[in-house]
C-alpha cells in the first residue's frame, strides 16, 4: 500500500486526511465494482446479437490494452519496465486469465448472463481451496463454504433441466481458472508495481486471446451498432475504468477490504441481466444463487483477513476480474 502524505500535519489534520483518503477509496471501490458488473450482461447482449464471442473478446482486449499502455506511458513511463522474473509470472497469469475469459465468453453462447455471474461467485471458496495447497490452514468452516457452494451450483443448474450443461461446465472451468489466477498472482506477483502488473497481465492476456482467435479461423463480421457499443463498454468501462479505479482504491483502503465487494458485483450483474436482458430465475435457481453468495461472503471475509495481513507488508496484487 502506498503511504499517506500526513507528515507535518497535526494529529487532527492527519485523522481528517486519512478519513478523506479512505472515503475516496470506497467511492473508487464502488465505481470499480459497478464497472466490472456490466461485463457478463453486456457480453451476453452482444453474443445474442450475433457477435462472435472470440472476436468480441479480441476487440475488447485490444482496445483496453491500448488504453492502459497509453495511460501508463503518459503517467509513469518507468512502469513499462519490469524485472524479467515478474514479466514471466505476468505472462503465465495472463495466459490463465485468457483461458478463463475464453471459456466464460464461450459459456455465454449457452447460458444467460445472470447464471454465469452467479457461477463466477464460486471463486472465493475455490481460491481458499487452492491456497490450502500451499499451506493455508483448511478449517471446518472452509468445508461448510464448499458444501454451500456445491449445493448452490446443483440448485442453480440441476433440478430444472433447462440449463445447458456444456455452458455450465465452461462457466465452472472459467471460475476455476480465474481462481487459479488469483492464487498465482498472490504467490508470484505481490511486490511488483501494481500498474506494471496490470499492464503486463492484460497485454499477455490479449496476445493469447488473439492467438486463440486466429486458431479458430479469425472469424469477423462487421458488428452492428449495438455490437460496437458492447465493445466500447467492455473495453472502456469493464476493463480500463474498472481496473484503474480498482488499483486506486486498493492503495487507499486495501485489497482485503475490497474483497468484501465481490458478492456485490455478482448481485449487480444479476440485476442488470434482469432489468436489461429480461432474464428470469426460477425459485430453485434463486435459492442456489443465494447459497453461492453466502458461501462467497464467508470466503471473502477469510480472504479479506489474509490479504489485509499481506498488504501491510507488501503492495497489493492484480485482481482476477473478467
What does the main sheet amount to?
Answer: none
Helix tally equals: 13
Low-confidence stretches: 312-320
Mean pLDDT, to the nearest integer, reads 79
Distance between the termini: 23 Å
From the alpha carbons, calculate the radius of gyration and give it in angstroms. 19 Å
Order of helices and strands: HHHHHHHHHHHHH
**Total number of β-strand segments?**
0
What's a concise summary of this model?
The chain is an all-alpha fold and 322 residues long. It has 13 helices and no strands.
Write structural notes for this entry.
This protein has 322 residues and is mainly alpha-helical. It has a domain at 18-121 and 164-282. The protein has 13 helices and no strands. The protein has helices spanning 11-37, 39-48, 53-75, 84-107, 113-120, 123-132, 140-157, 165-188, 194-215, 225-253, 255-259, 262-276, 283-311. It is globular. The two termini are 23 Å apart.
Fold topology:
Elements lengths: L10 H27 L1 H10 L4 H23 L8 H24 L5 H8 L2 H10 L7 H18 L7 H24 L5 H22 L9 H29 L1 H5 L2 H15 L6 H29 L11
Helix pairs in contact: 1-10, 1-12, 2-5, 2-10, 3-9, 3-10, 4-8, 4-9, 5-8, 5-12, 6-7, 6-8, 6-13, 7-13
